[in-house]
Amino acid sequence: MDGEIALISLGSNAPNVHDVPASSVLFGSLRLRALFGDPVIESRLFRTPAFPPGIGPDFVNAAVAVRTTRDPDAILSDLHEIERLAARERSVRWGPRTLDLDLLAVGDRILPDRETQQLWRDMPADDQRQRWPDRLILPHPRLQDRAFVLVPLAEVAPTWVHPALGLTVVQMRDALPAATLAGIVPLDGIDRTG
Prior knowledge:
Blueprint: E1 4-12, H1 21-36, E2 40-42, E3 46-48, E4 59-68, H2 72-85, E5 100-106, H3 114-122, H4 125-130, H5 147-156, H6 169-174, H7 178-182, E6 185-186
Antiparallel strand pairs: 1-4, 1-5, 2-4, 3-4, 3-6
């Protein structure tokens, strides 16, 4: 197949036109399938603690892997449009979200360069909460720190290797504290067929 693997995380913890967070994540997943066509590999849905703590109810999170020849900036623009269709408002950094779609990685690309990616990856959490990058950073700079991303991602791309860290998704997941991983619980009985 042509193209690179693009990895995308989906999350929701605020009701919207789709009523409940799980419905919003499923809406996002269907839109991604329409955007990229098959094959789209989808994880199960997971209930995850709100991040950062205290911003609202638990999240529903998932991940997808797609193959694409599209430019990462064009993908990001389309993800923002899908969020807009789900009534996403960007008023508070890391606030409650009706639908959050994050472009985690595209193949083994490091964007815009290794130094900038590392700067954002190593930035303290308090600084990350106050600052926004002015361009797309790939891989997502906090990918390796977030169980709510890595647990679903391990279902769709377990052997993808972070090009700056040299670790697979499974290795990054397994390096997280067991207590953090224990808070990520699959939602049973969710119909992914639409």
